[in-house]
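$ ./design --mode recover --in tokens.txt
reading tokens...
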């Protein structure tokens, strides 16, 4: 079991952005081994797992048009995020786990892009073995951006995000250092089509994450997006030295982070 490397993942929160055009360059053996390690050892909750596929992924990504969906090209490798569909809270758990892997990749200087809708499941399933109850919920290419300016640590892309006031449905963060740090990190989390479905309630010593709708959309559950935001919340809190624990809740609530 891997403990969260707080400093490097917290830093990666603001370095990560989605990249769809890759150079084809293969990561070094050392970097690949680090990715394999996080896939094998980051098991925060039961039911989800990540598998690194060391094969070019051109055939796996579908083309699409629009502001948020471009075909991913020339990625040397990809990672599949696999869910046991019988496990409770599996969508949020897969988001949380997948984002951990993505932040580790980012910390290693690799570009990534969550892809939940536009990939060929049949092609992925030819390259990995799934158990009966398992489903690939999303994948990410990993590699280096084709454009040097878009590489991790070089790019200064601005995040197009809602302001915190629009995401907080009750409570205030102004005077609470850990909660402010947690929500600033959650705010810039990635979500399908940048829909930012997470809403937050702040109470004494806790943050509750809820989904703004029960609908799916783009073939991706909003619970998965919220699971990604959960990891960002935890990293934001840990970065201020505050520990806590997650308890899962009844949908459309997702989970509550209670400071310990
Ligand atoms: C669960 C999930 C699924 C996504 N699916 C796709 C996809 O199918 N195709 C794509 O091009 N981008 C996809 N994205 C990337 C989002 O469009 C992107 O994260 C969002 O626009 C925010 O931009 P940023 O990641 O650069 O901050 C997905 C993101 C998430 C979190």
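writing sequence...
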């Amino acid at each position: 079991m891997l403990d969260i490397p707080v400093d490097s993942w917290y830093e990666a929160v603001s370095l990560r952005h989605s990249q769809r055009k890759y150079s084809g360059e293969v990561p070094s053996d050392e970097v690949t081994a680090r990715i394999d390690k996080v896939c094998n050892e980051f098991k925060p909750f039961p039911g989800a797992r990540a598998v690194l596929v060391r094969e070019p992924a051109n055939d796996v990504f579908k083309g699409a048009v629009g502001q948020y969906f471009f075909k991913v090209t020339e990625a040397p490798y990809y990672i599949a995020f696999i869910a046991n569909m019988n496990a409770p809270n599996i969508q949020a758990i897969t988001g949380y786990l997948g984002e951990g892997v993505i932040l580790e990749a980012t910390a290693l200087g690799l570009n990534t892009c969550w892809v939940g809708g536009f990939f060929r499941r049949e092609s992925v399933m030819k390259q990995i073995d799934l158990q009966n109850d398992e489903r690939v919920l999303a994948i990410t290419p990993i590699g280096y951006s084709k454009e040097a300016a878009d590489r991790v640590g070089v790019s200064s892309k601005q995040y197009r995000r809602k302001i915190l006031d629009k995401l907080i449905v009750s409570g205030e963060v102004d005077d609470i250092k850990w909660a402010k740090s947690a929500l600033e990190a959650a705010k810039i989390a990635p979500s399908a089509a940048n829909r930012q479905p997470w809403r937050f309630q702040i109470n004494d010593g806790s943050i509750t994450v809820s989904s703004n709708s029960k609908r799916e959309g783009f073939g991706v559950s909003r619970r998965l997006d919220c699971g990604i935001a959960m990891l960002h919340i935890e990293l934001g809190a840990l970065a201020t030295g505050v520990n806590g624990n997650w308890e899962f809740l009844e949908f459309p609530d997702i989970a509550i982070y209670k400071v310990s």
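exit 0
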